[in-house]
Design a protein that fits this description.
heterodimer, A: 343 residues, alpha+beta, Butyryl-CoA Dehydrogenase, subunit A, domain 3, four-stranded mixed β-sheet, 10 helices, B: 383 residues, Butyryl-Coa Dehydrogenase, subunit A, domain 1, Butyryl-CoA Dehydrogenase, subunit A, domain 2, four-stranded antiparallel β-sheet, 13 helices, 8 strands
Chain lengths: 343, 383
C-alpha cells in the first residue's frame, strides 16, 4: 500500500486536533465538530470494499490508520466506528450513521425491563451509538435515550445507562457476535499501540532536549537503557497487533481469536511498563496537565485491560495449549503460519 | 528513530523442510532427557552433527561448490528453530555453521574457502570464537593477545577465556592485536584462524556453576602461525567481528534456550492433570511471549533475506528474547511453588534447577544486556 491514505488521514487528524487546548478536556461542541469533520471525510468506511464506497484495503493494511486515533489522541472512537461499519457490512447488519462504541463486559442488563448500565464505557458519554453484547444477545443503544451517570477524568470513559426503550435488540447469529467482539478488541488494541508509539516519540525527544548536569539526559546510561527497553516493548506491541490482523484474509474478516488473544496479552502485559518509563524519563513535567504526555499514558493504562487483563488472556491461551492433545509447544508455535495459509 | 518490524512469513518451500527435519530430530534424540536437552546449543554430540551433515543440513547458506546447500536465511531459520526448539545437541557444529562459515565465505581468500568450507559442511571442522580475555570482557578493544609479524608469518602470544567449545574444536577464530596498542582501541585488531593442534596452545576447560564444562581458557605461547592464518584484512578485525555479530544476534537461538524446560513443564501438567488458572496463565504467558518474539525474529530474518543490514533490530530482538528466556524458569518456579503438595518428577526438578542456574549466561553471551541496550540507544540517536 502506498502512503496516500496514511498521509491524508494523518493530515486530517493533525488538523482536527490542533485546535484543542493542550491538556484540557475538550468541550462537547468541539468534539461534535471534530466528529462531523472526520465523518465527512469518508474515512469511517475505509475497510469497506471499493464497490461499497470504501478503500478496499485489508485489516492488516489498515493498522497504521487505526493506530492514528491513539497516536493523535483523537477524541472520538474512530477505530471502533471503522471496524463496526466493516463488520456490519460483512454480516449485512443495518446500522444507523454516526460514531460507534462497543461494550461486552461489566454491564448490567436487567432481564425484565432490559435496561442497561455500564460503569466503564469507551466514549460512552458521547458516541452516537453503543453496541452492547450480553449473553449471546446484542443491543443497539442510542445516544438520545442515554443517561450519563458520570464522566471520568480524561474524557475517554463514562458511566452510562439506558432505559428499556433505548435498546434495540439486534438479531445476530453467534458467529456475527464473536466477530464483533474480535473486531472491537482489535480496534482498542490498535488505538493503544498508537498511543504507545506517540509516548515513545515524546520520550525520545524529551530525553535529547532536556539538559541536566550540563548535558542532555539522554547521555546518561540509566536513561538510555530505559528508553532502549521501551523501544523493545513498543516494537513487540506493534508486532503483536500485526499478528492479529494477518490472520484475517480480507478486511471484512475479523481477527482470529487465538492470535488476538496473544496480541491482547502482549499489549496488556507491557503497557504499564511503557507508561512508567515515559513518565520516569519526563520527570515532573510529565505529571502536569499542561504537558500532553498524560493523554497518551492514560490511553495506554486505561485501554490495556478493557477486555481483560494480561493475566486473563494468558489463562485463555494456556487453557487452549494444555488441551491441545499432545502437541509440543514448538509444534503449536510453528503451526500458526499454516493456519494463515488462506491465500 | 525506531523503524517498525514488519510481519514476515516463511516461504512455503522453506516451511516444507520442517516435517522431515522434525522427524529426523525426533528419531535421533529420543534418548535425551529434558535435563540434557536444556543445554540447548551448548549440548555437544559430534556424531549428531555428522548425521545432520549427511542429510545436507549443515552449511545451508554456503554455496554448493563448497558442499553447502546455497539456501537463504529463511531455510536456516526453519532448521535452527527445529533443532533448538527440540534441544538437539548442536553445539559441535553450531558456531562453524552459524558464524565461522559465513565469515570465511565473506572475508576469506579463495584458498581459505576451499580448505575450510567443505570441512564445515561435512562436520569435520568444528570452530570456536576467541573474543574475551581475562581482562577484556565487554571492553573488547582492550584485548592484549598479540600477533607479531615474522619471516614465517605471525608469532602469537596471549590468552582467551570463556571460549565456548575450545576443548572440542579444531579451529579458533580469534580477534587479536596485530599492531598498535590498547590506546588505539578498535584499530590494529585482526582476525586469525588458528589450528588448535599447533604447538604452544594449551586449552583448560572451565567448569560452570551447573557442573558442565562448555567453555575453556586458551593459552597461546609462541605459537607460530603461517601467513595464511590471517583472515580478511589486517587491522580490519573489529569491522569483521561486528558484521559477524549481526548474523549471530537475530536468530532463533535467542528464543528457545529455555524451551526444553517449557516442554517438560507442559508435558507434566498434562500428565498430572494440572490445569488450574495459575498453571494456565503461566503456560499462556510463555506461549504468547514466545509467539511474538518468534515473529520479531522472523521479521529480522526477512530483512536479512532482503539484503538489508538490520543490526539495530537484531540487537533489540536479542535483548528482548533473552529477557523472556530468563523469565521462563522464574514463571514456572512461581507457578509450581503455588502447589507445594504436588509431587514433581525428578526430571522437571532437575531441569528447572539447571535452567534457573544457567540462565544468567543467556544475556551475557553474544554481548551483555548493558552493551546491547547501549547499541539500541545509539541507534535511536541518544548517544
Amino acid at each position: 500500500m502506498d502512503t496516500l491514505l496514511e498521509d491524508a488521514l494523518g493530515e486530517l487528524f493533525r488538523h482536527v486536533t490542533s485546535g484543542a487546548s493542550p491538556g484540557l478536556e475538550i468541550t462537547a461542541d468541539e468534539r461534535k465538530e471534530i466528529s462531523n469533520e472526520i465523518y465527512a471525510s469518508g474515512f469511517a468506511d475505509l475497510l469497506l470494499p471499493q464497490a461499497a464506497g470504501g478503500s478496499g484495503i485489508s485489516l492488516y493494511e489498515a493498522i497504521v490508520l487505526l493506530k492514528m486515533e491513539g497516536y493523535y489522541n483523537v477524541p472520538i472512537p474512530f477505530a471502533q466506528t471503522v471496524v463496526t461499519r466493516a463488520w456490519a457490512h460483512g454480516h449485512s447488519v443495518s446500522l444507523p450513521e454516526g460514531t460507534f462504541s462497543y461494550a461486552s463486559s461489566a454491564l448490567q442488563i436487567d432481564a425484565q425491563t432490559r435496561s442497561a448500565t455500564l460503569h466503564k464505557a469507551w466514549h460512552g458519554h458521547w458516541a452516537d451509538h453503543m453496541l452492547i453484547a450480553s449473553d449471546q444477545q446484542c443491543f443497539l443503544a442510542h445516544s438520545h435515550d442515554r443517561r450519563i451517570l458520570q464522566t471520568y477524568h480524561g474524557g475517554l470513559f463514562a458511566a452510562v445507562a439506558w432505559p428499556a426503550q433505548g435498546l434495540t435488540r439486534l438479531d445476530l447469529r453467534e458467529h456475527a457476535a464473536h466477530d464483533l467482539f474480535n473486531f472491537s478488541v482489535f480496534a482498542m488494541l490498535a488505538v493503544t499501540v498508537g498511543a504507545m508509539e506517540k509516548a515513545f516519540e515524546f520520550t525520545l525527544e524529551y530525553a535529547t532536549q532536556r539538559q541536566q548536569f550540563g548535558r542532555p539526559v539522554s547521555k546518561f546510561q540509566a536513561v538510555q537503557h530505559q528508553i532502549s527497553e521501551m523501544a523493545e516493548h513498543v516494537c513487540a506491541a506493534d508486532m503483536a497487533l500485526q499478528m492479529a490482523a494477518a490472520a484475517g484474509s480480507n478486511a471484512l474478516t475479523a481477527p482470529a481469536a487465538p492470535q488476538l488473544a496473544i496480541a491482547q496479552f502482549q499489549i496488556a502485559h507491557i503497557a504499564d511498563r511503557i507508561a512508567d518509563i515515559a513518565h520516569a524519563i519526563h520527570g515532573a513535567i510529565g505529571i502536569s496537565q499542561e504537558y500532553p504526555l498524560h493523554h497518551y499514558t492514560r490511553r495506554i493504562r486505561e485501554c490495556k485491560s478493557c477486555f481483560g487483563s494480561a493475566q486473563y488472556w494468558a489463562t485463555e491461551i494456556g487453557q487452549r495449549i494444555l488441551q491441545e492433545n499432545n502437541d509440543t509447544l514448538l509444534a503449536v508455535l510453528t503451526s500458526a503460519q499454516d493456519e494463515q495459509r488462506t491465500d | 528513530m525506531l523503524t517498525n518490524l514488519e510481519l514476515a512469513r516463511l516461504p512455503d518451500h522453506d516451511e516444507d523442510l520442517r516435517q522431515p527435519i522434525r522427524a529426523f530430530i525426533q528419531e535421533n534424540t529420543q534418548h535425551l532427557t529434558a535435563f540434557e536437552r536444556a543445554r540447548s546449543w551448548m549440548g555437544f554430540d559430534a556424531d549428531f552433527s555428522k548425521k545432520l551433515a549427511q542429510q545436507g543440513w549443515l552449511g545451508l547458506t554456503l554455496p554448493q561448490q563448497y558442499g553447502g546447500a546455497d539456501k537463504g536465511y529463511f531455510t536456516r531459520f526453519v532448521v535452527s528453530e527445529e533443532l533448538l526448539g527440540a534441544g538437539a545437541p548442536v553445539s559441535a557444529h553450531w558456531i562453524a555453521d552459524r558464524q565461522s562459515g559465513p565469515l570465511i565465505l565473506r572475508y576469506g581468500s579463495q584458498a581459505q574457502r576451499d580448505f575450510y568450507l567443505p570441512k564445515i559442511c561435512r562436520a569435520q571442522a568444528f570452530f570456536c570464537i576467541g573474543m574475551s580475555e581475562p581482562d577484556s570482557g565487554s571492553d573488547l578493544a582492550s584485548i592484549r593477545t598479540r600477533a607479531i609479524k615474522n619471516d614465517d608469518g605471525w608469532m602469537l602470544n596471549g590468552s582467551k577465556i570463556w571460549t565456548t567449545n575450545a576443548q572440542h574444536s579444531h579451529y579458533i577464530i580469534a580477534l587479536v592485536r596485530s599492531s598498535g596498542t590498547a590506546q588505539d582501541k578498535h584499530k590494529g585488531l585482526s582476525q586469525f584462524i588458528i589450528d588448535l593442534s599447533l604447538p604452544g596452545i594449551t586449552i583448560r576447560p572451565i567448569h560452570d556453576l551447573a557442573g558442565d564444562a562448555h567453555f575453556s581458557e586458551v593459552f597461546f605461547t609462541d605459537v607460530q602461525l603461517t601467513p595464511e592464518a590471517l583472515i580478511g584484512q589486517e587491522g580490519a578485525g573489529w569491522e569483521q567481528v561486528n558484521a559477524e555479530l549481526a548474523f549471530e544476534r537475530s536468530g532463533p537461538e535467542r528464543l528457545y534456550s529455555s524451551m526444553a524446560l517449557v516442554e517438560c513443564f507442559i508435558r507434566e501438567c498434562r500428565q498430572q492433570g494440572w490445569d488450574s488458572p495459575p498453571v494456565q496463565s503461566t503456560v499462556g504467558e510463555i506461549t504468547a511471549r514466545l509467539a511474538v518474539l518468534r515473529a520479531m525474529s522472523l521479521a529480522v530474518t526477512a530483512k536479512l533475506a532482503d539484503g538489508q543490514n538490520p543490526a539495530l533490530e537484531a540487537t533489540l530482538v536479542k535483548d528482548y528474547g533473552t529477557s523472556l528466556e530468563q523469565d521462563i524458569p522464574k514463571l514456572i518456579d512461581r507457578c509450581l511453588g503455588l502447589y507445594p503438595a504436588h509431587m514433581l518428577s525428578t526430571e522437571l526438578i532437575n531441569t528447572l534447577s539447571f535452567v534457573s542456574q544457567i540462565c544468567p549466561s543467556y544475556s551475557l553471551r553474544g554481548g551483555t544486556r548493558e552493551i546491547l541496550r547501549g547499541i539500541i540507544a545509539r541507534g535511536l540517536g541518544l548517544r
